[in-house]
Amino acid sequence: MLLCFIVLDYFSTWWMIPVLIWTITWKAIAAWKAARKGDKGWFVVIFVLNTFSIVPIIYILLTKRQEAMKPKPKKKSTSKKKIVKKK
After folding, report:
1. Dihedral-angle region of residue 38 (phi above 0 means left; psi in -120 to 50 means alpha; beta otherwise)
2. N or C: which end of the chain has fewer CB within 10 A?
């Protein structure tokens, strides 16, 4: 009888591991991006709300869309030019 409950308990919780990995991965990515951008409000919301990664995914998609709309700055040339003095 006890063995039956142990087996049922194992099979009823197997799905938690993939969900936990999924949630931690998305939460970590979104929190890292929010911290890098200085979005303190989003950072707190991402850690407080546990919604199967819906909030972190929304944050990542919104910021990706905003980054795509910004014009990219031109890269500065890092090569050194030789200055030739004329006599």
Report:
1. left
2. C
The span from the CA of 8 to the CA of 6, in Å, is 6
Q: How many residues belong to the chain?
A: 87
Confidence of residue 84 (pLDDT cuts 50, 70, 90): low
What are the pLDDT digits (tens) for 22-64? 888 988 898 899 999 998 888 888 878 766 678 888 888 888 8
Question: Domain coordinates of the chain in residue numbers?
Answer: 16-69
* Residue 59 and residue 33 in contact, taking contact as beta carbons nearer than 8 Å: yes
- Number of Cβ within a 10 Å radius of residue 30: 25
B/e letters for 62-74, b = 16+ CB within 10 Å, e = fewer, are: ebeeeeeeeeeee
Distance in angstroms (rounded) separating the CA atoms of residues 26 and 33: 11
